[in-house]
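## retry 2 of 3
previous attempt timed out at serialization; input unchanged, resubmitting
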Amino acid sequence: MGERAARDRSKHRRRVDPEVRELRRRLEEVERQIHALEERLRQLGETLGDPSLYADGERVRAVALERKSAEEQVAWLMREWEALSTELAAHE
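## retry succeeded, writing output
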């Protein structure tokens, strides 16, 4: 019976493998996007820390708006990352 159970698990893994691979691929892509946005947020923080920026009100608004947008994107991607991680854990 042990051999049959191992064979059944092996068959099940082969059926799930493409789905697991796709979940991993999507998870890696989300992680890449999060890291890129975090780097951009770091750069924007440095820009906002530069006193010379505040000589141009329009530029200040543009940088602040971009920062807000990047923060919202990171929050959305973090929720997606959590959902993908949960789904992947259920398959493994």
